[in-house]
Amino acid sequence: MNMPDLSNSSQANLDKDIQARVSRWVRPAVQELKAYAVPNADGLVKLDAMENPYCWPDALVAEWIEVLKTVELNRYPEPQADKLKALLRQHLGLADELGLVLGNGSDELIQILQLSVGGAGRCVLAPTPSFVMYELTAVATGTRFIGVPLTQSFELNVEAMLKTIEQHNPAVIFIAYPNNPTGNLFRLEDIDKIITATDGLVVIDEAYEAYAESSYLSRIESFPNLLVMRTLSKLGLAGLRLGMLMGPKDWLAQFEKLRLPYNINTLSQISGEFSLRHKSVFVEQVENIRSERELLLGKLAKLAGVRVYPSKANFILFKVAERASSIYAKLLADGVLIKKLDGSAEALKDCLRVTVGTPAENCQFMTALQKALIN
Ligand SMILES: *Cc1c(COP(=O)(O)O)cnc(C)c1O
């Protein structure tokens, strides 16, 4: 019961020693980082992370499990994931002349890109607010991150971007298309001006392409510095962690060197192949989500005290004057988890983001939101 003093104090000394060594050795930029926080969603209607809410039909799950039974987990994965890549090329309609690198989610591809062209004395540019991983990975790779604020209506501030390009000559510019967390597609002519003005790379991050009906993929071959990145996550396979980077082969051959040999595990490869052979399931789900998005946009626009922003993704950004925290908490109390953006950046003051769910989930969200707004 009574712990001997000695052990207590030696534990305390050990703790102190650990803390001292951590602060001595972990790079200051990393110590200053806040870990990417994912809230617990147990028992909640989960509308915070842009996931496709639909599961597969039982028969398809049964067929998938049969395929998984054949996997030899004692063996390393196929290092190049050739079969999966061939199916992905078909699915994407990717020209033979273009290269394809796979990542453990597009998050990993963002990291590979910055490991390749970033580092000390170099900088990465992205409009803000945008996807947080561009900055996080910049810090991780010792690359300077420069954010250029979007305009009030969340369009690219082309003039400011061009000025920053001229001043800082960024190694890579990330443009999410549609943008997360704002949901809009930037104007093509604005993006074109940026691609033409910079000497470095431009990566068009098309994580929400399935919902957007607009893409840069067919235009890669018109530029020497354009890459397109996609992912299966928002389509309905977030658990697989499969991202794709496409562009001229000379660029991609360099990035391929930094891809860890077995980054796409066997279960992801096999499941990815299986999914692509049954992609009609996703086509239908995506159509449902798109029409639900339009319904939700219409309903949100009618609410007093809510400003809703246009969306070409599977989520919607909206603003509730001075009440974001309390409305977020009220929704949570009613079992609905969305994303609170208020507090993360000046431009996102009072903003909340909801992922489009199933019709039933969207109803639950709307009911909870209406209730929160009148209370
Ligand atoms: C979600 C998201 C990603 C990350 O996708 P993963 O493939 O799941 O890592 C990349 N870019 C944007 C803009 C996103 O919103």
Residue fraction in strands? 15-25%
**Could you say which structural class the secondary elements and strand pairing correspond to?**
alpha/beta
Determine Rg (CA atoms, Å): 23 Å
User: What is the H/E string?
Assistant: HHEHHEHEHEHEHEHEHEHHHEEHEEEH
Q: How many alpha or pi helices?
A: 15
- Main beta-sheet annotation: 7 strands, mixed
Distance between the termini: 52 Å
Secondary structure: helix percent: 40-55%
Which small-molecule ligands are present, each listed once?
Answer: pyridoxal-5'-phosphate
C-alpha geometry: globular
Description:
There is one protein chain. With 375 residues, this protein is an alpha/beta fold. The chain has helices spanning 5-25, 28-32, 58-68, 82-92, 106-117, 133-140, 158-168, 188-197, 209-212, 233-237, 249-256, 266-277, 280-301, 324-333, 359-374, and strands spanning 45-46, 98-103, 123-128, 144-149, 172-176, 201-205, 226-231, 243-248, 306-308, 315-320, 336-337, 339-340, 351-355. α4 packs parallel to α12. The site of pyridoxal-5'-phosphate has 13 residues, from α5. Pyridoxal-5'-phosphate is lined by residues 50, 105-107, 131, 176, 180, 205, 207, 231, 233, 238, 243.
